Amino acid sequence: MENIALHMLDIVQNSIEANASRIYIEIEKDTTKQKLCITISDNGRGMNKEEIAKVLDPFYTSRTTRKVGMGLSLLKQQVDQTGGCLQIISEQNKGTSTKFCFNLSHIDCPPMGNFEDSISTFITVNPDIELILKVSCATKTFLFESKKFLEIFEGLPLTQSELRKYLYDFLSENMSWIYLTECTI
Amino acid sequence: MTKVKTLDDLVRLRDELRQKLEIREKGDRSEQLIQVKVAMATCGIASGAKQVMDYFIEELPKRNISAVVTQTGCMGYCYAEPTVEITLPGKEPVVFGHVNKDKADEIIEKYLKAGELVDGIIPQTFKKPS
Ligand SMILES: Nc1ncnc2c1ncn2[C@@H]1O[C@H](COP(=O)(O)OP(=O)(O)O)[C@@H](O)[C@H]1O
Ligand SMILES: [Mg+2]
User: Fold this and answer.
1) Which of A37, A173, B35, B101 would disulfide-bridge B87, Cβ 3.0–4.6 Å?
2) What is the pTM of this model?
3) Domain containing B62: what range?
4) For the domain A4-179, what is the CATH code?
C-alpha cells in the first residue's frame, strides 16, 4: 500500500464485509515516540478463535471469490518492517477491533497519506454506515460523528461530489495538525 | 468563504446552501440512477481504486449524469483491478477491468452517455473462479 491512510481504508473494508453498521476509527499520534496508531472497531459479525488464529495467514480468507486473503498479512508485513505492531481482538457476533501502529521516523515507514481524503470518500459512498472518528495528538483531540454531519445536510439535493468536498473541508479544518511533527504550528 | 470548523458553522453553511439549491431539481429516484460500484478490497485499493472512485464522484455531476457511486468488496477479478461494475437502469451489470482515469473517462463518455460498449469488459463467464 502506498500510504497509511489507504491501509486504513482497506481495514475499514473488512468491517463493511463483516456487515458492520457502525465503525469507530481512532487515529492517535505519540509525538515523543513519533508513533502513529490506528484502531478500527466495528459491530460486524466478528470472528471465532479459530478464525482469529488464521487471520494473519495470507492463505486464509472467508471470501469465496478468491482463495487468498491478503489485507491483514500485507499490513502485518509493513508494520513489522517499521518495528510497529498489529493486534486483532474479535468476538463472534459482537465485532472486531484491529489496531496497528507505525513508527513514523523509521526509514521504511510509508507516508501518512491523506486521512481526511480517505474518510470523506468513505462516508460519501457509505452514508448508511455510521462512522465515528477520534483523532488525538499531544494536547489536541478531534471527535467527529458522520451521523451528526449528515443530519445537518439531510434533504438537500447535494451531489456526492459536493458532499465529499464539505466533508473534506470540515475534517481538514479540524485535524490537519496530525501531519505536523509536534502537532503544533 | 468563512471557516467551517464547528457544527454551528455547518448549520450556517447548510442554510446558505439551502437558498442556493432551492431551484435545483431533486435527484431522480434511485432505481433510475446509474449505479457505479468500485471494488475496494486490498487488490483494488493497492492498484488505485480509490482515485478511480473519486474520479467518478467528481466527474459524473460535472457531466450532468445522474448516478450513484458506491463501493463493493472483492469481485474476484484481482488480475484486472481496479474493477468497476456499472448498471444502467433496466440493464444487466457490466464489469470493466483495469480502470484508470483515462478508462473511466472513456466509460463515462461512451457507455454511460451513449450505451456503447468499450474495451475492457470482463466476460461474465470469468466470474468467481473457484
Ligand atoms: N472486521 C472484521 N470482521 C470480521 N472478520 C474479519 C474482519 N477483518 C478480517 N476478518 C476476517 O479475516 C479474513 C482475512 O482478512 P484480510 O486479510 O483483510 O483478507 P480479505 O479481506 O481479502 O479476505 C477475512 O476474510 C475475514 O474472514
Ligand atoms: Mg481485507
Assistant:
1) B35
2) 0.92
3) 7-23+30-122
4) 3.30.565.10
